[in-house]
Every structure is written in C-alpha cells, then in structure tokens.
Amino acid sequence: MSFRQKHLLAIEGLAPPEINHLLDLAESYVLLNRSGKTQRDLLRGRTLINLFFEDSTRTRTSFELAGKRLGADVINMSVSTSSVNKGETLLDTAATLNAMHCDLLVVRHDQSG
Predict the structure, then answer these.
(1) Does 57 share its domain with 81?
(2) N or C, which terminus of the chain has less Cβ within 10 Å?
C-alpha cells in the first residue's frame, strides 16, 4: 500500500484503509516478535536515526530494538550530546540530518509536528 503522507504524526489525515493497513502490519509484527523470529532483511541497508529532545528510555529502546530486529542500522542521538546545546535550532538539526540521507527518522520532541 502506498501512503499519501511521508510522515506519521497522528492518524488525522489518514484514510480508513491506511489506518487498517497500519493496524494489520502492527499485528503481524507483534506475532512475529512473540514467535522469537526476526525479519532482519526488511530494513537491511537502511539507516534509522532516533533523535530525542526528551529523555525516554522505553520509547528510545523500543524504536532501537524494532529497527535492529528489522535489520536497520540504528543511530541514537541525544540532544544532550548534540549541537542543540550550543544553540543550534531544530530546523538546523533537521537540515543536517536530511543532508545525511537517513532513511527513517524518529523524533521525540515536546512540540507536535
């Protein structure tokens, strides 16, 4: 299925078939995870960057583990060790990450969007 949006911030804007497809995919990955099997080739050769402006061990670890189980190269970035501490804006950080051509970007920030 091809989605109209390139991001997922909320389900608003998704058509009912898109939401159902996401729920079906999620269920299949839950079953795969419970079986102890992995699907390491699904994201092989892809880079996932987790960028967290707020500390969240469970959320970061969940995305890191999911990425690794699907075969992605995972990079965890923390604001405490980034140039944001030196005054870099969120837009500057986004532009820098975009220039790195990562395939997937997970952002946790107190502002939506």
Answers:
(1) yes
(2) C
**SS3 (DSSP) at 76:** strand
Cα atoms in the Cβ-side hemisphere of radius 13 Å centred on 30: 6
Give the domain extent around 32. Answer: 13-39
The domain total for the chain is 2
Are 29 and 50 within one domain? no
Q: Which of 83, 86, 87, 65 is nearest to 74 (CA)?
A: 65
Note the pTM of the prediction, 2 decimals.
0.75
Q: Is residue 35 part of a domain?
A: yes
Low-confidence ranges of the chain (pLDDT < 70): 81-82, 110-113
Closest CA to 61 of 70, 50, 72: 50
